[in-house]
User: Fold this.
Amino acid sequence: MARTPLMAGNWKMNMDHLEAIHLVQGLHQELTDANFDYSKTEVAVIPPFTDIRSVQTVVEGDDMKIKYGAQDVSTKESGAYTGEISATMLSKLGCSFVVVGHSERREYHGESDALVGEKARVALAAGMTPIICCGEGLEVRKAGEQVSHVLAQIDGALDGMSADDVKKSVIAYEPIWAIGTGEVATPEDAQEVCGAIRVRVSELYDAETAEAVRVLYGGSVKSGNVRDIMAQADVDGALVGGASLKADEFAKIARFDA
Ligand code: 13P
Assistant:
């Protein structure tokens, strides 16, 4: 596969900055002990904003190859936007990734596809890789409309993005019914939607762009199920929540092919 797999740990609102240092050091140690080859698989942690400076300090101080990013970004560059964090602030802290449009932000903060797309473009303009999230809820899944639902989200988020931007982006398919529930989608479920996303990218852009964009699966990924999910043709990695909070477990996930 030409696309480098990406294993990203979305910590959500967990881990203070001291716990973050401990977790990153533990992850680094586990991967070092296993002779992990970072050129074959990218590994990233996505901590809360308050941890990022501490994560940067340990990663740079110990010359780690673990990458890191943020869970959200403002569309504004600077100014009177109390509580917001700009893309420039994040890139100055060495962030490689920004998660945009996670289902929890869509649900609790009313984020639309258009806003998600704007956040992705802001992240790209600051030299970071957006991880653009999409996924259907249980009702949509029960109605069998997951593919059309997700493709509408993708159409909305990619609107106005160039092929070059899309090639540099990551798309994460996270069925909401599988997030934090222990209810993992079957590898075939993951492939169905991830494959449909890639086909849509080829329709919206071209075959080269579709081949380049990485599509992740997220939702109750664990060391015990990651291998079968990663065996799917259009799944290029995982966005991991709960299982990324334990160094040994997330290291096992990163070593899915060991
Ligand atoms: P869980 O792995 O805890 O199900 O969370 C998935 C997720 O939302 C990652 O962004």
About this structure: The chain has a mean pLDDT of 97.
